[in-house]
Amino acid sequence: MAPPTFAVSEEKNRWLRDKMAELGVSEADLEETFVRSSGAGGQHVNKTATCVQIRHRPTGIEVKCMKDRSQSVNRFLARREILERIERLNKGESPRDVRVEKLRKQKARRKRRATTKYDPEKDNQQ
Question: What keywords sit in the KW lines (predicted)?
Answer without folding.
Answer: Hydrolase, Transit peptide
